[in-house]
Amino acid sequence: MKAAILERAGQPLVIDDVTVSNPGPHEVLIRTAACGLCHSDLHFMEGTYPHTMPCVPGHEASGIVEAVGSEVRAVKVGDAVVTCLSSYCGHCEFCVTGRLSLCLGGPTRRRKGAPPRLTRTSDGGAVSQMLNLSAFAEQMLVHEHACVAIDPDMPLDLASVLGCAVTTGAGTVFNLCKVTPGESVVVVGCGGVGLATINAAKIAGAGRIIAADPLPEKRALAMKLGATDVIDPTDPDAARQVVEMTRGGADHAIEAVGRSASADFAVGTIRRGGMATIVGMMPLDQKVGLSAMDLLAGKRLQGSMMGGNRFPVDLPRLVDFYLRGLLDLDTIIAERISLGQINEGFDKMKLGHSARSVIVFGQ
Ligand SMILES: [Zn+2]
Ligand SMILES: [Zn+2]
């Protein structure tokens, strides 16, 4: 199969032939239909986060099950599926208390020194699977707890973005913030995750939804997805404007960028007792905090690991939201590209102008 390989951080991806193993007892072989380009891929490609190389990135995918291992019960051949990097073991403290996205994966993750599941066809060299998925490839070999079957009526190109961006944004609103009708929500950053967060806040019945992004075209998309107000967070007065609009600050501020400045901005917009949630992946040496006054005002700060998802439950619900016309995935996806255009797609992401690019395979 063809796959996009990351050989070294800072270099473009190389399209090459890769051989995929047969499914082990709990593995599923999936014919990839579509895969979104996510900012987290870029973090690994630029070396901000470490990974064994060569590897195949890509973790926001949909496809059709082609083969299953002898013990697989969760899905069957022919199922339409969405993958998720939050593979869960089902046995650990986090799994049995319903916090699947915190599971360290145990037996569902690749062990160091285990035989490679992907090899380079030309020389047989091992190719590591990023986040146990490696979806920038025509086929994926994943653990059965890393994918979920969805309604076959769901278009697969749109379904792919449910696997990371939408699960993360919507999960943050529904699972972690538990936004209730009428509450005010600030969303900082209007890329794929931010737009999904805005859309989910609208579905949750939030009152004022204030979207913050420096780019006017992204603020326009935010309005389309349900924002009631938009602001430019680079305006030095922006946090004060939010506090005024919400008469004392927002109930929730959700940061979907991954920069300490925008995380501080989020903290600066919440009211007494409000919650700031950091979804973006900040560089590993950066921090965000609460001041003594923030603490005395009962403000809270939390991280979001993939939106606190329980993806086997959440993903089919998100599919229902789309099929009922509540979740606007068509606006979140800016363009569809081929695997061969992957580096151009990431170049566009670096410029920050578009929402989501999705690779559609077989076109
Ligand atoms: Zn992602
Ligand atoms: Zn577990």
Q: Mind telling me the C-alpha Rg? A: 20 Å
Give the integer mean of the pLDDT values. Answer: 95
Count every beta strand, where a strand is a DSSP E run of 2 or more residues: 18
H/E topology pattern: EEEHEEEHEEEEHHEHEHEHEHEHEHHEHE
Helix fraction, binned, reads 25-40%
Beta-strand content estimate: 15-25%
pLDDT < 50 runs, ≥5 residues: none
Structural class: alpha/beta
Shape: globular
Bound molecules: zinc ion
Number of helices: 12
Cα end-to-end separation: 15 Å
What characterizes the major β-sheet? Answer: 7 strands, mixed
What report would you give on this structure?
- With 363 residues, the protein is an alpha/beta fold.
- Helix content is 27%, strand content 25%.
- It has twelve helices and 18 strands.
- The chain has helices at 39-45, 93-96, 156-159, 165-176, 192-203, 216-225, 238-245, 260-269, 292-296, 311-323, 329-332, 342-351, and strands at residues 2-5, 14-20, 27-36, 55-56, 61-68, 80-83, 118-120, 126-129, 139-143, 147-149, 185-188, 209-212, 229-231, 250-255, 270-278, 300-303, 333-337, 356-360.
- Strands 3, 5, 6, 9, 10, 17 and 18 form a seven-stranded mixed β-sheet that branches. A six-stranded parallel β-sheet has the order 13-12-11-14-15-16, with helices on both faces.
- The mean pLDDT is 95.
- Bound molecules: zinc ion (2 copies).
